[in-house]
Amino acid sequence: MRKLKLQMQITIDGFVAGPNGELDWAFIAGKDDSEALQQVIGFGVELATGCDTFLMGRQLAASTFCAYWENVADNLPDNPWHSLAQLIANYRKIVFSHSETTFSGRNIEVENGDLATAVQALKKQPGKDILVYGGANFVSSLISLDLIDEYYLIVSPVAIGSGLPIFKDRKVLELESSIAFKHGKILNKYVPV
Q1: CATH number for the domain including 102?
Q2: pLDDT of residue 32 exceeding 60
């Protein structure tokens, strides 16, 4: 059976975005240098290579997310994120929405049915694993329904005091591995107990 893998950046005080969805903390935390950037990109490409389907909620799909990655994949071959962008742009993307039936972007399908039923059915399909990056509310729903099989949380060395959490209830996880990146961020891989 395919696994559903979550990759998200998170602050040390447990938020994945500011109160209004701000992500500026993800870019100012830690020291920026090309070696550290290559570490993060390398991990992202490695994780994405093991997947062939990408899940997202309505809000992320309605944002510039897909257009951004398609532009990098199609028009910016010198961008350091180009190899990851190619994977994301060409993935099968499934958007979960109760109200919308179409979204713009490449390889997008819309699922209007029950989240747990649809994800369990996707896990039973042949293929590589399934990846989800966000947004906060969509990921929180997946976590609450015990649908995430592996958590890849990139902890940024910054506290923002308040914001959007992804954990709404108690969740016991087991740490499988931890990698410290040169810019101060730490990648922790967790699995449900």
Answers
A1: 3.40.430.10
A2: no
